[in-house]
Amino acid sequence: MKLDGKVAIVTGSASGIGAEIAKRYVSEGANVVIADLNLEAAQAKAAELVAMGPGKAIGVAMDVTSEDAVNAGVAATVQQFGRVDILVSNAGIQIVHRIEDFPYADWKKMLAIHLDGAFLTTKACIPHMKSQGGGAIIYMGSVHSHEASPLKSAYVTAKHGLLGLARVVAKEGGSSGIRANVICPGFVRTPLVDKQIPEQAKSLGISEDEVVKKVMLGETVDGEFTTVADVAEVALFFAGFETNALSGQSLTVSHGWHMG
Ligand code: NAD
């Protein structure tokens, strides 16, 4: 098992990509904290994973934009499992509008969840990682960390920002054995994407089928969605890679949508 005895916090892991990463980590022997907005959903996901094993899991309520909630969730992790080896900052939402129609409140919400959330969870985990001699921090970026799309000013800005944060964390954390990397998935069929299909069809004046075939998968090498399992595999690779040789990097998993 690649993560035997490791302790991981995965934010936004009651659903979608985060849930699959948590499952993969537990299957590799890690003890995982499901940190999500809704306590019941987080605990239900944790119970599912405990039944599967061999790692353990607990659910905690954490709004990643709240410093108090983040600090409490990290403290609960250490209280329950004694340490924090892996942070996957994954919680995220999508809001799409043309810039001139983008409500300022929605812009701030997007940046708060994606960037403040990444900052606050990193800040809370680093002291534990330092005192333990190292750790792995993984940010959920996107192809939109490297490419732009219409309607996604806030998302693209936030996902590009994560590259900068990861590079700084890699430099500051190097002497303490703390590695920071970014996973950049293409479109993955989760609730976050399902919600966008009719919204984009309306904003762009095209059919939902065209949104999927042209907007989402048009630039891939094979017209295929990336899967939650694909992303979890990369998250396992980053978590299990034990040296600073792999730090400050981003890895794109997108059926060739973005190459580079
Ligand atoms: P999802 O909607 O299935 O899951 C997101 C989870 O984040 C939910 O459980 C939600 O409750 C949680 N969440 C939302 N706001 C939160 C907050 N403030 N605090 C804590 N938790 C919060 O979405 P997903 O597709 O699994 O997305 C996960 C991450 O992957 C996001 O960062 C997203 O930007 C990124 N991503 C998704 C895709 C894709 O195509 N689905 C592609 C690239 C990157």
Walk me through the structure:
This is 3-hydroxybutyrate dehydrogenase. InterPro entries: 3-OHbutyrate_DH (IPR011294), NAD(P)-bd_dom_sf (IPR036291), Sc_DH/Rdtase_CS (IPR020904), SDR (IPR050259), SDR_fam (IPR002347). Keywords: Oxidoreductase. Pfam families: adh_short (PF00106). The protein contains eight helices and seven strands; from the N terminus they run E-H-E-H-E-H-E-H-E-H-E-H-H-H-E. With 260 residues, it is an alpha/beta fold. The protein has two domains: 7-186 and 226-253, Rossmann fold; 189-225, no CATH class. Strands 3-2-1-4-5-6-7 form a seven-stranded parallel sheet, sandwiched between helices. Helix 1 crosses helix 8, helix 4 (104-132) packs parallel to helix 5 and helix 6 crosses helix 7. The longest helix is centred in the middle third of the chain and has 29 residues, at 104-132. The two termini are 31 Å apart. The model has no long low-confidence stretch (mean pLDDT 97). Nicotinamide-adenine-dinucleotide binds next to helix 1 and helix 6.
Which of globular, elongated, flat, extended, rod-shaped describes the shape?
globular
**Which distinct ligands sit in these coordinates?**
nicotinamide-adenine-dinucleotide
Straight-line distance between termini: 31 Å
Helix/strand/pairing class, anyone?
alpha/beta
Number of helices: 8
InterPro entries: 3-OHbutyrate_DH, NAD(P)-bd_dom_sf, Sc_DH/Rdtase_CS, SDR, SDR_fam
Family: Belongs to the short-chain dehydrogenases/reductases (SDR) family.
Keywords: Oxidoreductase
Pfam families: adh_short
